[in-house]
Task: structure prediction
Amino acid sequence: MKVIYGGIVLALAWVTYFIVSQFDDREGVTGALLTTGSQPSDAIFALGALLALRFLCVVVLPALLVGWLLERLLVRLHKRFTRARS
Amino acid sequence: MDRGPAGDGGPPRFLRWLVVVLGVVLTVRFGPVAFSGREAPAYYRGDETKVAYLLHGAGRDLLTLVQPERFYGTKVEAKNRFRTGSARFDGEWFFGTFLMTVVGASQTAIEHPDLAADSGDVTHLGEETLVAPQTRAYDTEAWSEDALDHLEGSSRDHCAYLCYVAFGLGMARLAEPKFAYGELHDRVIATLERRMLAKESLLLQTYPGETYPVDNAMFIGALGLHTQATGTDHHVLLERWEAKARATMLDPATGLLVQSMKDDGTPGDRARGSGTALASYALSYALPALSKDLWTSIRTHLWVSVLGFGAIREYARKDQGHGDVDSGPVIFGLGISSAGFALGAARANKDEQAFRGLYASAHFMGAPIDGDARRNYVTGGPIGQAILFAMMTARRAP
Result:
C-alpha cells in the first residue's frame, strides 16, 4: 500500500507542479524575479513554490518511491524463497 | 535477529532499511540528472524539432515585450517588466533579451535552413527593436549622447551598446540573404575598430570610466562575424587584440578573463566565470584558439559537478565573492550567468560532456514548459530564455 500511496502523492505533486508552472508562465511572474526587492511578495512565493515542487517531484518523491519499491520487492522475494525451501 | 512486523517471517529489519536507503541514495545520485539531462544530446546535436520549440518560445517572449502586457493582473509597459532596481540595468536587460534572441534565431537559421522563415520573423522583430532609440536609452543617458547619431564625430566608446549590437547585427547578417541594416552595421564596425586601434590598451569603455574586457570580446567576436558576412579583412586588429589579451587581460594564475580593467591597463577586478564564459563563446567566432584556452581554464578552475549536474563557479576556488547584476545570484560559489554562458562556450568548443552536465542543471532549475510548439524556461523569464536560446544554439567549432 505504501507504494500505491507514494505513487499517488508523486502524481499529485506533478499535477500541482504543472498548474503552478502554467500560472507562472502566463503571468510572467517569475520573469522579473532574478533580482528581487521590488516585486510582490506573493510572486516570490510563486517562484519558491515552483522550485520546491520541482525538487519534490524530481528528487525527493521518486527516491522514496524507489526505496519503498525495493523494500517490497525484497519482502516478496524473501517470502517466495522461504516458501520454496519449506 | 530483529525481524519485521511480529510473526510475518519477513527479512531482517536492518536489511529492509538497508534496501530502502540504498534505493534512495542510488535514485538521488542517478535519477534527477538522467531525467533532467535526457534532452541534452538532442540539443548538442542540434535536433531541429527541439530547436524550433526554443525559437518559438523566445519569439513569443519578444512579442509580449513589444506590447503592453498583462503582468501580475495589471497592464504594464513592456520595459517595466524588468525591475532590477536600476534604470540602467533595466535597459540593459531589455536590450539583452532582444540581442540574445536575435543571435539565437540567426544561429538557428544558419544551422537549420528549414527553420529560416520562422527565424526570420523573430530576427526582424528583434532587429527593429535593437536599433530603436529607446532601446539604447540606458547607454545614451550614461554617455550623454546617442551612440548611433555620433558614430563618426565622437570619441566616446559606447561599448555598452555598440559592442553588443555589432555582434547581434553581425550574426543576423550572416543568416539573412537580404539584410536590411548592412550600411549601419558597416559604420558601427568601422567606428569601433577605429576607436579601439586608437587606444594603447585596445579596450573600449563600456560606460565613462568603466572598462570590461568581456564587452570588448563581444566586439572582437563581431569582427569575426563581419569578416564572414562581408569578406572584410580585420586580421591586423584581431591579431593585436589576441596578443594584448593574453598579455594583460588574463589572470596569470588561472588563465581566466579579468572582469574589469583600470584606465592604466591594469586589472580592476578579479577574473570571473560569467565574463570568461561569455567571452569564450563570443571569441569562438573570431579567435578560436583564445576561445578554446579560456574554455580550458574554465574547465580547470571553475567546473563543478554535483550528482552529475554541471555548474560553474563565479570565482576561482581560492576566491570568495558575492553576486552582482553580471553574475546573477551566486549560491555556494556557483554562478547562474556563468553556467548559462558556459553552455554556449561548451558547445562552441565541442565539449559534449560539459554541455550535458550544464544542460541538466539548466533544465532542472529552469523549469521548462512546452505548449503550442514552443518551450519556455519559466524561472529565467524572457532574458533567461533568450540567453539559453542563444547559448544552446551556439555554432560548434568546425
Summary: Helices of chain A lie at 2-27, 41-85.
